[in-house]
Design goal:
By secondary structure, the chain is mostly helical. The chain has helices at about 1-5, 20-30, 35-50, 55-65, 85-120, 135-140; strands at about 50, 70-75, 80. A three-stranded antiparallel β-sheet has the order 1-3-2. Strand 2 and strand 3 (about 80) form a beta hairpin.
């Protein structure tokens, strides 16, 4: 049993990244619409095992990743650990979907508002609807 555990010792398993890390970071940034600095710090923390904040700027990036569910503070509260990629990417995608849904709803409201503003511009419109006139009736007699 002890030999089996040694096989899965993280320190003995070489880190294998299937493609260039910079490309992976860029893809995370573009596909899930998070800042490049956050994608970089997540991948760095994932590959190095932990991240200790060195300045206020990177601490803010780490806190943002923590709020997104991609990093967690260790028990001592001094360093950040990367959340497993399955959970982290799921968290990011859920937030991405929520942003898209919110944008779509906002755009729909804008389209509805524009429609209501455009209807009175039709000749003969008084109540914001053209149900009383056949389509094109006012222009056919001109």
């Amino acid at each position: 049993m002890h030999s089996r555990l040694a096989v899965f010792n993280v320190k003995r398993v070489p880190h294998h990244v299937p493609r260039d890390v910079a490309v992976l970071v860029k893809d995370i940034h573009e596909a899930l619409e998070i800042p490049l600095e956050e994608a970089e710090l997540y991948v760095k923390t994932l590959t190095e095992g932990r991240y200790v904040s060195s300045d206020a700027g990177t601490k803010a990036v780490a806190e943002s990743l923590s709020a997104r569910g991609m990093l967690i503070l260790d028990a001592g509260g001094r360093s950040y650990l990367a959340v497993h990629p399955r959970m982290a990417m799921s968290n990011l995608f859920r937030a991405y979907e929520e942003r898209l849904t919110r944008r779509r709803k906002e755009r729909r409201l804008l389209v509805d508002k524009l429609t209501l503003e455009l209807i009175p511009l039709l000749p003969g419109e008084t109540k914001g609807t053209n149900a009383g006139n056949p389509r094109g009736a006012s222009t056919a007699t001109r």
